Protein: Glutaredoxin family protein
Organism: Halobacillus salinus
Amino acid sequence: MNHVTIFLKNNCPLCDEVKSLLDLFMKDYAIVMEEIDIEKDEKLLEKYFLEVPVIRINGEELDYRSIDYFSIENRLH
């Protein structure tokens, strides 16, 4: 089972793109996905404010600059 967490905020087109990208993997991989709105947590907002979307796949974080189809696929099992 793959555990994927996406850190995002409202009105974030890049966040929507990454969510759509992750949806492509849902049918081929066993994935439990959690979405966390950074605007609801001061520490997360401070940490990720200029970095969203950020995804954590099985404990490994990727920020928006390193998220693409292959970087996600290489971390799934």
